[in-house]
């Protein structure tokens, strides 16, 4: 059998990511490849760093994009900051908190779990209790915006508690970056990772990452090497440093970085505050329509993510069949439930370029017709 | 300062990779993004697996592309196959053999080094001696085509020795895949990784990977979990398996996988044997011209890679200035020396789409003029 070229359809992506990609980003993606040590490329990398600093609202020197998806960004934080025997308080209120626990354990660390129900934010009272009970804990890890449930946690308060108990913070901002306020410096977060394919509306495959000076110092004080060569950020830093000669670490994903640069140029042009507001506005439009259809949200309004709307599947409705119809008839993707919410919820994303009235209108009408 | 879109120049890429990208591959790259669990995307992944099996000349069920560059593919092999305390014989005749040692040590393994001079192939006699001296060794690791020197080692013979001593093989085929014969099944190689940006002429950022049944069984017999969550192939397998329901592991780099699919469609269309011959033919053209310029090769003819020509920088020539002139005047990139060859050699790549007469002609004339 001869395999020919693959021509994907034009979908509207309203799942938990990848989100709709800006057309300009796809254009940037296919520009001519240059070498990863080409001076012009290095100049672009310097710009990219500045743009990432803007998106993260940080002046951290160590602000880069990991050459792999968000889960590698998560792992980069843990393998660099956790040494065998280290105690890490891990907040778990969805799939990604549990993945953090996995990471701690695979680093030889000891994970102390703070559990909240799926769909709820991380409870600072429980976190404080754990910090008091474990004065030897070195790190507090939590998910800012849980992609599996659509719950937003109070990163500022959690980070403050961590500092009071002399802990660094590792923060999953995969779904929050660009969609809701995230202020790395003001909130004094230490290690924050994200993904390219959510509210930045770039192609999947890169993980923006920033480390505070406190995090860098912790890495420099390590006594055993980082267990991952690929994710050892002390090696990667030499490539991204911008000071003097670049040293080769690995071949950068050149074209994907063009795309991320373009996505961030667009974000800067719109302005972070405007982007946050747009997500909120579109969320209100979507919410109004969903409520008219009698569809209920998983997360309380106070901690609901505008960019990721987890809603209960109405009773008697065939989950898979509805999603299949949306995809086949309307070329519209919404997300299935994950983990504890599998089969019980849908996740409707309004991320980045997907957060537009035409998307909301399509989604509402298509759902209305399909659910009839 | 406002940062605008980045418009890279059109370079001719004749370094050690990334190589010139097929125009069709760049077109495929920018096709509309679909979800990583979209049935049409999963269909493409199944085709991609078949195409990778063709490129590797294997029927291994576990044949995938790691969602990260070649160095992550290397790490995927080591973290999955090496357990703490395992003895691994590592052949070192360039930068990438030494990176293998790093990987073994970071996995808690014990690396036994077999050293050959830079520019020489791995010597099977030395390898056999090491296998005899270390009957408890569990793995033999070597680089098929050393990207840092341009030397080709005899993978078939080395793998045979490994089997005779009950060792699995980990083989770096980053620069060999698609450029010189590589027959995973016939040679009975166990864990083989490559890169997208070399002789496949795809964008950088993906690492084709294949595991034999023996390797899979070794992984299944592990007593401690793989230290990397992201690279734990027992988890990844569930996503790529193609049997029944796909389980989510990480968000696949959708567009990069379109590009790899297209690059492999082109390779299949040309035919592997034809591609190997084309690399050889272009190498002869280049060699003839370089010899006329009095330029000498680092590697003996018998083990010289056609796709990566490491040549000594003529005496009295300013290395950096020549490369800068080629880049600025001719938009031509050739590679600097790496490691022990830094400042002493250039690496001229003829990889994939770069292996064309027009590239060779440009390179020879530009070098001739610049060296005058």
From TrEMBL, chains A, B:
Keywords: Aminotransferase, Pyridoxal phosphate, Transferase. Residues 33-339 form the Aminotransferase class V domain. The modification N6-(pyridoxal phosphate)lysine is found at residue 198. One of its GO terms (molecular function) is alanine-glyoxylate transaminase activity. One of its GO terms (biological process) is glycine biosynthetic process, by transamination of glyoxylate. InterPro entries: Aminotrans_V_dom (IPR000192), Aminotrans_V_PyrdxlP_BS (IPR020578), PyrdxlP-dep_Trfase (IPR015424), PyrdxlP-dep_Trfase_major (IPR015421), PyrdxlP-dep_Trfase_small (IPR015422), SP_NH2Trfase/AEP_transaminase (IPR024169). The keyword Transferase applies. Substrate binds at residue 347. It holds the Pfam family Aminotran_5. Its cofactor is pyridoxal 5'-phosphate. Gene3D superfamilies: Aspartate Aminotransferase, domain 1 (3.90.1150.10), Type I PLP-dependent aspartate aminotransferase-like (Major domain) (3.40.640.10). SUPFAM superfamilies: PLP-dependent transferases. PANTHER family: ALANINE--GLYOXYLATE AMINOTRANSFERASE (PTHR21152:SF40), AMINOTRANSFERASE CLASS V (PTHR21152). Belongs to the class-V pyridoxal-phosphate-dependent aminotransferase family. This is Alanine--glyoxylate aminotransferase. It comes from Photobacterium lipolyticum.
